[in-house]
Amino acid sequence: QVQLVESGGGSVQAGGSLRLSCAASGISFSIAAMGWYRQAPGKQRELVAIINSSGASTNYADSVKGRFTISRDNAKNTVYLQMNSLRPEDTAVYYCKATIVGLSRRDYWGQGTQVTVSS
Questions:
Q1: Sign of the dihedral defined by the CA atoms of residues 7, 68, 80, 44, in that order
Q2: What angle do CA 59, 103, 96 make, to 5 degrees?
Q3: For residues 33 and 87, what is the distance between their CA atoms, to the nearest angstrom?
């Protein structure tokens, strides 16, 4: 059974930092591309950051470049999102996603963790 469990969300004041973690089980984590997405109330889910299976390649939404850092530890089957200089507009539910491409593409989602940034 595939499980992606996010943690580390919470409430913080603008300018503060949070570190999200996503622990994966039931998948071959080391071959999965991992991503963080977020969904604010009344808005569509959007990509925040992605990282390839080895961790050598990352990509970020323009809105978080220079503030957020995605990383992974394949030995721990965990992906992280370090969020610095948080803004009220970063308030959302943050989800991690695992993507495995083989004979077919499979996507797996976590349940999400709430991040609230107050001004």
A1: positive
A2: 35
A3: 27
- Return the amino acid letter for 54: S
User: What is the model's pLDDT at position 80?
Assistant: 98
The type of residue at 34 is M
**Cβ-count burial 28-62 (b if 16+ within 10 Å, e if not):** ebeebbbbbbbeeeeeeeeebbbbebeeeeeebee
What pLDDT is attached to residue 84?
98
Pairing, β 58-60 against β 78-83: unpaired
CA dist., res. 27 & res. 84, Å (int): 29
Task: For residue 31, give the DSSP letter.
Answer: G
CB 68 within 8 A of CB 60: yes
Residue range 44-59, pLDDT digits in tens: 999 999 999 999 999 9
